[in-house]
Amino acid sequence: MQDAQIYKANALVEASYRLSLYEQRIILACISQVRRDEPLTDQKLYTISAQQISEMTGTRLGTAYQNLKAASERLFDRRVTLHEAPNGQGSTRVKLTRWVQTVEYRDTEGTVALRFGTDMVPYLSQLTEQFTRYALADVAKMSSAHAIRLYELLAQWRGSGKREVTLEWLREALQLEDRYTNIRDLKRWVIKPAIEQINEHSPLWVTWDQRKTGRRVSHLVFAFGEKPLKGPQKPRKRKGQVRGGKEGENASGSIYGIPMAVINANARPGESSDDAAHRILEERRNARA
């Protein structure tokens, strides 16, 4: 599963929901099994085992087994609020739905099997534009559900290198409700631990700052980029963000921060610019490993 890829519609990345760490791991492990070369239906059953979770995350098998069982029992009741249609098409009415329609925990096998909810299928399959892709391994070792969510929100804007969000929007996206209402608590228990884990476990480096409206902190500003192969790299400010374009591409003529000239020079016959950029990115990561 180390080479598995996660594909999500940007609308799902920006949806409002709350999942525990192990619920996230189950959902993401199943999403990584969605085939890109065939349609997804709501009848498809996806299975993940405690053994796979243990190997993917580097945790003890017994711990993975216990957490997998507990998470599977809660997962059926987890809901998600969608604010946009997939691929930027259709209605933009707010939709409240469930992640899954079926969850089976197979005690003797130590596995969980699930079927995604009917409303979730378009956000995971046949994504032609406005989607986010990253490797499952990028978040596998993270021990914070908030870190995984924040990583996705940054990966969505990977080609830009900067993302600014309002505190109100972020709290809604993470479904924090009445928790961490004080900005100091939010930074101490949510933002700082998430940033530390992204910097430690993912291929991105991240720095962050806050912006005030009057005397009140109203926005968080994240600067990020690919970790260098060698030597230190300082955050670079980039001008312009393109939201709703092709995955990873920005107005400066790059995808995932890789110049189009490099992508075009290294693209293989029949390979799209996006796929070529992703392959180059993976080759750089492998060289760094």
Give descriptors for this structure:
alpha+beta; globular; 14 strands; 9 helices; Arc Repressor Mutant, subunit A; 3 domains; three-stranded antiparallel sheet; 289 residues
Write up what this structure looks like.
With 289 residues, this protein is an alpha+beta fold. It is built from 9 helices and 14 strands. It has helices at residues 10-13, 21-31, 50-57, 61-75, 145-155, 167-173, 183-201, 260-266, 273-288; strands spanning 5-9, 16-17, 46-49, 79-82, 95-98, 100-106, 111-116, 131-135, 162-166, 204-213, 216-226, 249-250, 254-255, 258-259. It has a 3-stranded antiparallel sheet, with no helix packed on it. Strands 3-7-6 form a 3-stranded antiparallel sheet. Strands 9-11-10 form a 3-stranded antiparallel sheet. Strand 6 (100-106) and strand 7 form a beta hairpin. The protein starts with a strand and ends with a helix.
If you average the pLDDT, what whole number results? Answer: 83
- Could you name the CATH homologous superfamily of the largest domain? Winged helix-like DNA-binding domain superfamily/Winged helix DNA-binding domain
CATH topology of the largest domain: Arc Repressor Mutant, subunit A
Architecture of the largest domain, according to CATH? Orthogonal Bundle
* C-alpha-based Rg, rounded: 19 Å
How many beta-strand runs? 14
Which structural class best describes the helix and strand composition? alpha+beta
The unreliable regions are 231-252
General form: globular
What is the element string, with H for helices and E for strands?
EHEHEHHEEEEEHEHHEEEEEHH
Instruction: Report the end-to-end length measured between terminal Cα atoms.
Output: 17 Å
- The share of residues in helices is 25-40%
